[in-house]
Design goal:
Blueprint: H1 5-31, E1 40-42, E2 44-46, E3 48-52, E4 55-71, E5 76-80, E6 88-89, E7 94-98, H2 101-121, H3 135-159, H4 165-211, E8 214-216, E9 221-226, E10 233-234, E11 239-256, E12 268-273, E13 281-293, E14 298-305, E15 317-323, E16 328-334, E17 339-341, E18 344-351, E19 354-366, E20 369-374, E21 381-383, E22 396-398
Parallel strand pairs: 1-22
Antiparallel strand pairs: 2-21, 3-16, 4-11, 4-15, 5-7, 5-10, 6-9, 7-8, 9-11, 11-14, 12-13, 12-15, 13-14, 16-20, 17-18, 18-19, 19-20
Helix pairs in contact: 2-4, 3-4
């Protein structure tokens, strides 16, 4: 039996509508029943409060304990260079030798002139000068004694009317002349002694000039530079070498003015340098500047660090931790419990079966733990190692 075409079309449309309605109903049923995530298994750590050393973190640089630009003290031609850069030297080690021909000749001449004057004065080595014992003075004294004795004899004869008045006056004149010669001899001896002193000074200068032909290290250290070679001619005052002492090494630090009360002479300093990551060096404050730098409003502090192995080099940038006087309470957690992303640090505090995200301020590291200055309280439990798998409100399951 044939059905009309219109009835068939309406039947098909009704069937399609029924199928679409059933499909939509199934989607609404699925959306209303979400899948629940399983809790994240975590280990917990407790926020602990305990006394901890406090440190002031400042920066600075290393410098040699001593540095000398050694110069020649006399002119001459270089005839020897027994050291090279990097040579370890002690105080007095020869750095440069200069030709000593002229200096030695000048020394011999000065010695001869001084010896001549000593002979004239009758001096021997180590003998003190006495003008009355100079040969010329002794001769003049002998002449005076003879003249006075002769005068006394003539005077007694004059009293007896044996000699004339003219002869008496002649002997008197002779005595006066002898006495004047005696005084002149003493004066000449004094002048000769002054000349001897000048001659001895010239000997000392000549001896120094001869010694200055050998340039020596002023202290124990390392030769950083040798600036001349054999055959070079150097003038007086010309720099020939640089010697540095790097054991100990100086640490020059800059401390902001608000921390002045925390810095004292003898205070312990912990140093780190980028050249040796993870290593800590020890130093002590030796000098605290009496005034601040006006352009920086900061104080210059100098510490000294032992450097027997020479690993710390002048010029290295250093970070220093200045230990404060008394330990203060600190809240400590394992370092792994703190997540830091884009400069923001956070921990996850366990609250029932979920965790709460807390933004924290970190402080100093103490071994494997780190100080939290804000964000948590003593005794709270936190996720020991979140490793990026936690977020605020996530359900957790405690291990152990």
């Amino acid at each position: 039996m044939n059905r009309p075409f219109g009835v068939s079309v309406l039947s098909c449309a009704a069937l399609a509508a029924a199928l679409l309605s059933a499909a939509c109903s199934g989607e609404r049923t699925s959306a209303a029943a979400p899948v629940e995530l399983a809790p994240v298994a975590i280990q917990v750590a407790q926020v602990q409060s305990q006394p901890s050393d406090r440190f002031l973190r400042v920066t600075g640089s290393l410098a040699a304990d001593e540095k000398a630009d050694v110069a020649a003290e006399t002119a001459g031609r270089v005839i020897g260079t027994p050291v090279e850069r990097g040579t370890r030297v002690t105080a007095g080690t020869v750095l440069i030798r200069l030709s000593a021909t002229e200096a030695d000749a000048s020394l011999r001449e000065a010695d001869a002139n001084a010896a001549q004057l000593e002979a004239r004065l009758g001096l021997v080595a180590g003998q003190a000068f006495d003008p009355l014992k100079v040969p010329d003075v002794l001769n003049a004294k002998a002449s005076l004694d003879w003249a006075e004795a002769d005068f006394n004899r003539i005077k007694s004869l004059l009293d007896q009317k044996v000699v004339s008045q003219a002869e008496y006056e002649q002997r008197l004149t002779q005595v006066q002349a002898a006495r004047q010669q005696y005084l002149s001899a003493q004066n000449a001896a004094q002048q000769s002694f002054r000349s001897l002193q000048a001659a001895r000074a010239r000997v000392d200068l000549a001896r120094k000039s001869a010694a200055d032909t050998v340039v020596r290290a002023p202290f124990s250290g390392i030769v950083a530079e040798r600036l001349v070679s054999t055959g070079d001619y150097v003038a007086r005052g010309m720099k020939v070498a640089t010697v540095v002492r790097i054991d100990p090494v100086r640490v020059e630090l800059t401390v902001p003015e608000q921390y002045l009360s925390l810095v004292k002479t003898g205070q312990t300093v912990r140093l780190t340098v980028d050249a040796y990551p993870g290593e800590v060096f020890s130093a002590k404050v030796r000098f605290v500047s009496p005034s601040l730098k006006t352009d920086q409003r900061a104080l210059t502090v100098e510490a000294i660090a032992d450097n027997a192995d020479g690993r710390l080099k002048p010029g290295l940038f250093a970070t220093a931790l200045l230990q404060q006087t008394a330990p203060a309470p600190a809240l400590l957690v394992p370092s792994a419990a703190v997540e830091t992303v884009a400069g923001t640090s956070r921990v996850y505090v366990v609250s029932g079966s979920t965790v709460e995200e807390r933004i924290v301020t970190v402080g100093e590291k103490v071994g494997g733990r780190i100080e939290l200055a804000t964000g948590v309280k003593a005794g709270e439990r936190i996720a020991a190692n979140p490793r990026g798998k936690l977020a605020d409100g996530v359900r957790v399951q405690l291990e152990g």
